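Course assignment 3, question 2. Fill in each field.
Student: A.L.
Task: Predict the tertiary structure for the chain below.
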Amino acid sequence: MELDSSGLQVLTETECLRLLAGTPIGRIVFTDRALPAVQPVAFCLDRDAIVIRTGTGSKLAAATRRAVVAFEIDDYDPASRTGWSVSVVGHARAVADPAEAARLAALPLEPWAPGGRDHFIRVSVERLSGRRITAGRST
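Answer field:
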């Protein structure tokens, strides 16, 4: 088991992908009018990318066109003082191909925010890292 300089367990790529595949809500970090913005989103892991379903005219859809973004998921249990975090950095792109959009619409991706969600964003998984805190470790 590899530990980082803070004593946290470094997760393998396989473990990071497993956690991404099993978590329905994450946070995307993007730039909005030259400032950092964070938005919680429902997502699905599809092959080598994170897929987000949003509205066509949404701030997220506009801000992530061909942009480098970060994406993060985590879980923490305060009673046992254990948890984990997975971070992704990659390029976001709007899905313009109707066949690809139709395929993505069939994924188990249910938006949790109200309103129409007929636009898909794919975030390529270019950099992937994860950490786990285990009982008895403090940061």
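Instructor remarks: The longest strand covers residues 82-94. Strands lie at 9-10, 25-32, 35-46, 49-54, 68-77, 82-94, 119-124, 127-133.
Grade: pending
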